[in-house]
From TrEMBL:
Keywords, alphabetical: DNA-binding, Transcription, Transcription regulation
Superkingdom, taxonomy of origin: Bacteria
Stored Gene3D superfamilies: Chorismate lyase-like (3.40.1410.10), Winged helix-like DNA-binding domain superfamily/Winged helix DNA-binding domain (1.10.10.10)
Annotated PROSITE patterns: HTH_GNTR (PS50949)
Protein's organism: Nocardia fusca
HTH gntR-type domain sequence ranges: 22-88
Record InterPro entries: Bact_HTH_transcr_reg, Chorismate_lyase_/UTRA_dom_sf, Tscrpt_reg_HTH_GntR, UTRA, WH-like_DNA-bd_sf, WH_DNA-bd_sf
Protein name per UniProt: GntR family transcriptional regulator
Amino acid sequence: MQVSDTNTERAGGTAGVRRLRADQARRIADILRHQIHAGTLGDTLPSEQQLATEHDTSRNTIRDALALLRDEGLIDRAPRVGTRVAARKYDHGLDALLGLQETLEGRGTVRNEVRAGQLITAPPTVARRLGVAPGEQVVYLERLRYLGEQPLSLDLTYLAPEIGVRVLDHDLAHTDVFVLLEQLSGRSLGSADLTVEAIPADRHTAATLDVPDGAPLLMLERLTRLDDGTPVDLEYVRMRGDRITLRGSLSRGIPEWKVL
């Protein structure tokens, strides 16, 4: 069933239930967004009529869904050209402890603009999380990270002092800190505590990452330890939400009440 000029549509397969066209458009946009990121649609999307038939909806609803994706910067639309993918995001896995260069291996050259690399007095929270004495110095790094010529993230990193001062002697423009930590410590990285939230880009960060003021960023906070449990790296990473997708695989453990 198709409705071309109303603001409600029948939900697919549910007799007697009608939903706002905006709800339907949002649902379809979610499906199309996934297909774009997965590369299953190619560089050009099917026509409005083909999409309307596939999703059992009206062309007006498809137009609304495509408008949502256009506003996200994922697609471009032009007369006689159709709808094309404007930009694809890069996957950043959440189920492996990898640096950006390791994560994007094979996607292009990752380089770092090192904006700061110095010893500073650790703020109390940083000292506590890195397990150093109050007032002790730690190494502070600030790097703007690029894939090719495109800025992807702004990384603010605090390193435990003993290993951090040795990191400063190495090529931070072309080498992941994670790689250096393992090389210099002689140990593998073991685990990390991770928090991810969405934040708007402040004016300075927006200019640095080449995004509009207030653009959505992925804020990743991560405390990384060596395999013996020693905390070595606390970082706050602002990632461009229009270029990076966080992705992982999860499994459901057995709840305690079921074990009992």
